[in-house]
Amino acid sequence: MEVRFHGRGGQGVVVASEVLAKAAFRMGFEVSSFPFFGVERRGAPVTAFARIDKKPIRNKSSIYEPDYVVVLDNSLLKGVDVLEGLKPGGTVLINYPEGSVIPALKPSFKYYTLDANAIAAAHGIGSKVAPIVNTSIMGGFAKMCDWVSLDAMLETIRAVAPVKKEENVAAAREAYEKTREVVQ
Amino acid sequence: MTKSYEEIPLTPISDSPSTMNMTGLWRAFRPVVDISRCKKCTLCWKFCPDGAITLVDGVPVIDLKYCKGCGICAQECSAECIVMVPEGAE
Amino acid sequence: MRMVMTGNYASAYGAKASRAEVIAAYPITPQTSIVEKLADFVSSGEMNAKYIPVESEHSAMAACIAAETAGARTYTATSSHGLTLMHEVLMWASAARLPIVMTNVSRAMAPPWSVWVDHMDSVAQRDTGWMQFFCESNQEVLDTIIMAYKVCESRGVMLPAMIIEDAFILSHTSEPVDVPDQEIVDSFLPPYNPELKIEPGKAMGFGSLVRPDQYMEFRYKAMQAMRDAHDRFLRVEKEFKQVFGREYGGLLDTYRCDDAEVVLVAAGSTAATAKDVVDAMREKGQPVGLARLRAFRPFPHEEFRALASKVSGMGVLDRSYTFGAAGAFYTEIKASVYSCQKRPVMKNYIAGLGGRDITPKILEKIFEDIQLTAKRGGGDEVEWVDVAGLPRRWR
């Protein structure tokens, strides 16, 4: 499985890819996660990747045709082709305000949404203006895929979060429950 | 006499200190201090690249066994009380 | 314990497991999180070492030289322009026969300004007298640091080693890495105990002047040491396998080369990707193999000669370029196999400079090009891969 994450500097995009790799590792998979190699700036579009396999991973090339795409910041839907290279039948998880309808979804992919900004803010992770959404998003990821359990994800978040461990775990659990598939 | 590669250490090592080298023999000019004008600023002592100056009651004493005669002390002296005199001259 | 970590952390854990006693490092760009992690280990007391922050990479190596001369096991890490700033003192470290171990996060040289992988910085230090080990995984980075100390500190070697980690592709990529138990590492790697070191109260000068009548004998000894490091490394790796259960294939790691008609030689992370490509092409019935250049110094001459006499075509991928010649790996391998009775057709591929991704598709095209070149009996010797404006398409 190959996963690509889109977000902005400061949202914890790279950490999200590491959390997924470490949770999959807990599930017994071989893993590799890496940022889009570049110079980091707060607010700038950031991409990160995770590669998950049953066999040891030797491929050190980047990911061009992911199976999953995760969008941490929906403002990127304008301007960045987040679906670029996504395999037919691939799955997309988008952080989007609850009750709003995402315009013009391309067919042939599956979409899931959750309001990670609201969940992260409610649990006091980051600030109300700039919530850190990565842990909430990863709760949603556990719901969307069938190969990482919620428990593995929550244990990883508890181990990785530098502060507010239980708040991050609670946010991820709530996100898991609130993540919905978009019926087209 | 060149030693065989089998008889030498990994890198050249000398077991005598560098104070064995009497660098004062290199000197062409000798520093002469007019102690009556010394302000005890210690600049000469700080700048001497060979550690050939010691301070006695704040006043420089130059060890002529090691002083190479570079003249830095005379250049730096804030009281201009050190002059360089050609060796052999009075 | 198996943990998911970056190549930089694997380096830091390698230095910690090896019980480095002095770490001297310049902390600012192009430095990486290696020394940040080591500073954490030292300040938390997990590692019993003296950490010396210095004002330049030149000073970092100078401090390592002084500490190693006093008998301490030392470690440092650097990258790109930091490594090239060290050049003068790298020469000193090896000729003073100090077994320092250093990680270099290999990056392109500027300009154009770049923070991405290529091997120019490392290859430019070829003649400094350091051993150079290129790694393909984070696990290999950690393990090679432990092995390197044992090789470097051997009585018959006493030379420094550079562990080379591809920037971003290993340095910033998280992979599962087994961190060995300290007691097991301690049983494998005894404390550093040099025959000669600076001792308080005893006046000694190290590296002093020698006249033309004695200089060559010192260089001759260093030559012997680097030559003997080859077999010493193989023995240490064998022992490492007995203790830790892992090995990496000696100085030239050959993958499916036994019945291969053509092979590609590559170093670093590219070789790992190329092994996947070899498997895919083998499934389609293509007899190709991959030879991973693990050590540029000591250079595996015999291994290359044995390989060259078995194959009809040998491609060499260089992630750097020696202007006015060709890739440095290529020119050395070609010189090495010249004395073989049966020599393969050879070709040099310059690829992946400044972090340009070397994809499985590009590697497959390189393998196909080696097959074609071997069939034709030769052709252009040096080809730049994936350069916009050149006629051939690689993507």
Protein model, in words:
The complex is a heterotrimer of chains A (184), B (90) and C (395). Chain A has one domain: Pyruvate-ferredoxin oxidoreductase, PFOR, domain III (Pyruvate-ferredoxin Oxidoreductase, domain 3). Helices cover 31% and strands 21% of the residues of chain A. Chain A has five helices and seven strands, in the order E-H-E-E-E-E-E-H-H-H-H-E. Chain A has helices at residues 13-26, 116-122, 134-144, 150-160, 165-178, and strands spanning 2-8, 30-35, 45-53, 68-71, 91-95, 110-114, 180-181. A seven-stranded mixed β-sheet of chain A has the order 2-3-1-4-5-6-7, with helices on one face. The longest helix of chain A is centred in the N-terminal third of the chain and has 14 residues, at 13-26. Chain A is globular and about 40 Å long. Chain B has 90 residues and is α+β, with helices and mostly antiparallel strands. Chain B has a domain at 33-86: Alpha-Beta Plaits (2-Layer Sandwich), CATH 3.30.70.20. Helices cover 11% and strands 22% of the residues of chain B. Chain B is built from two helices and five strands. In chain B, strands 2-5 form a two-stranded antiparallel sheet. Chain B has a two-stranded antiparallel sheet with strand order 3-4. Chain B starts with 12 loop residues before the first strand and ends with a strand. In chain B, 19% of the residues are buried. The model of chain B has no long low-confidence stretch (mean pLDDT 94). Chain C folds into two domains: 2-196 and 205-244, Rossmann fold (3-Layer(aba) Sandwich), CATH 3.40.50; 252-384, Rossmann fold, CATH 3.40.50. In chain C, the strands form three sheets. In chain C, strands 3-2-4-5-7-6-13 form a seven-stranded mixed β-sheet, sandwiched between helices. In chain C, helix 13 links the parallel strand 15 (345-350) and strand 16. At the A-C interface, helix 1 and strand 2 of A face strand 8 and helix 10 of C. Strand 1 of chain B pairs antiparallel with strand 9 of chain C, so a sheet runs across the interface.
